[in-house]
Structure formats: structure tokens, C-alpha cells
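2024-03-11 09:14:02 DEBUG pipeline.ingest accepted 1 chain
2024-03-11 09:14:02 DEBUG pipeline.ingest length=340
2024-03-11 09:14:03 DEBUG pipeline.predict start
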Amino acid sequence: MKLSDFDFDLPQSLIAQYPSPKRTDSRLLVRNSKLIDSHFSQLGSFLKPNDLLILNDTKVIPARLFGHKESGGKVEVLVERLIDEFSALVMIKSSRAPKVGSYIILENQSRFEVADKNEGMYRVKFEGDKIIKILDEIGHIPLPPYIERSDSDEDSKRYQTVYAKNDGAVAAPTAGLHFDDLLLSNLKKQGIDHAFVTLHVGAGTFQPVKVDDIESHKMHSEQFEIDQVTVDKIKHAKANGGRIIAVGTTAVRTLESAFEEGKLTSQKGDTNIFIYPGFKFRVVDAVITNFHLPKSSLLMLVSAFIGFEEMHQTYQHAINQEYRFFSYGDAMLLENKLDF
């Protein structure tokens, strides 16, 4: 398949710039044997007892920093991955690329050394306080490039799931932004439990696919973890006729990455799994996700899950009905095309 197969025209007015007033106020487009327009607060009416929601509990770090070189030139830094408490992989935007061995001085006068450079990414070593402490003090929430405004205090809460726990993401697992504690509690009363995985979303999630032959695309690598508690919950749900419902493409990629040699196993590592049409899903039965960018690997994942023509029909319906798109936009509940 060609990259152009995954393009569509989206009115600029449908790109959400702010979150809805309440998390569950967002709309929900349900695709099973037909298309149903609903609201996220009604999610429970489309699920059944023994279904299991898989949530990504990564926590967005305030990963955008501002500072200057020793020479005085301004720089913008995006922390891509925490290596340890004092080291990280970062992207640095400046008029001239910083040299290995030089220092960047941040707004609070803390600094880090540029230790190495590889494929446009810098490995840096912070001095003094731990990285997380510095980020908490002067870091900014790294809003996606299509949100055309500066981050605010509201974003520090709303660009974060209510169950976020493990520091490391530079982008939110946005399908989870629609849940609040009350909805999760009410679903549990209906017999719909949840379990957690972790995938630290990297900035690469916003990078468009650039090769015309999509099979030649190389995915960025991201850290993930799935523990035995979640593996056991999944086995139990399936044994009792429940569906595994991945909340977000990050949960999908984690679950499918952890399926090896015919079974799901607890593990921790890196994944660069690329899911596009023709992929055989082994774990996931349904997906809750937001609406994705044209020509993106995430749109290709959706196409693999529900079918190519079905993906285009679903997106055209969403555009016609003026659903809100991308990170702060509305959501879809998609059932696997094989279940129709």
C-alpha cells in the first residue's frame, strides 16, 4: 500500500485546541456492524461484563525546556527519553547545532553537558538536581505541534490521564484522557474491569510516515512494560468470554509486542512494532482511540484493525458530523473487523 492511500482532507476547524469542559463530555463514535454516534459518558452501554480495559499508565513529563548555550545562543530542548536520574536523550533546537562536550544552561541556571550525538538525538548529562526535579521546576508540557498555543496550567492536568503513574512520556496516551475516576468506578460495577500496561510515548508518535511504500517505514522505538498481574487478568477475561479492549494505540502496540511464541508474556523492553494492513492481531479485540493524523502510522494501525475502506468511511463520517480531532479531540470505539 502507498502512503497516499492514508491521506484525507481535514478542515482546520476540527483540530481541537483545548480539552472538553469535562473528560467524559467528549463524543464517541462506535463502529461495530454499523456506525453509532454517542458520547463517552455512555461507553458502558457498548461494553459487557467480563470485558477488560487495558490502560497505559505512563505519565507525561514536562519535557520542554528553554535555555542557552555557553556562547549565549537560545535553545529549546525536548527530553525524549529518561536514561537514568541524571541522563537523558533529548532533541535540541537552536540556530547552530551544539557541539559534543559543550554545556547548555537552563532558565534556573542548572545545566547539562552534551555527551554524545546520534541520528539527530543528543545524549546529555545533567548536573546537580535529578532531571525530574528540574523538569518539575521549569519544564513545560510538550503539547503536540498541531495545538497552536503555549501550554497552560490546565494542560498540566488535562494532558494527563487520571491514572498516570510512571514518569517517562513526552506525549499523552490520548485515548485515556476521556476517562475519569467515576466512569472507571461505574464500569467496574458493571463487571468491566481494567488493568495497566506502560508504554512511554515518544515524540516520534507525531512524525509522519515519509516513504511512499509504507512497508519500508521504520518505527521509532519506545519503552514498554507489561507485568504478570495484567497478563493473568487478560487470560481470565478471555477464559470468561470477555473482550480485551485496548485504550489507545499505545496499549495495542504493547499487547501485540508482548505476544511471543503463541502466548502473552510479562516483559519489559523496547518496541518498534509497526502495525499496518495485513497485521494479524493476537490479543486485542476492540480499541478505544482518538482520531489520528493523515499519513500517520497510527491511522495505518486503525486501518489494519477495522479494514482499509472501513477506516476511510469512519473518518469521513466523523468529518461530516464535525467530530473533534487529535489529542484533545473525541474518541472512537472500534471492534475488530473479524467480529462483524
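2024-03-11 09:14:41 DEBUG pipeline.report The two ends are 24 Å apart (CA to CA).
2024-03-11 09:14:41 DEBUG pipeline.predict end
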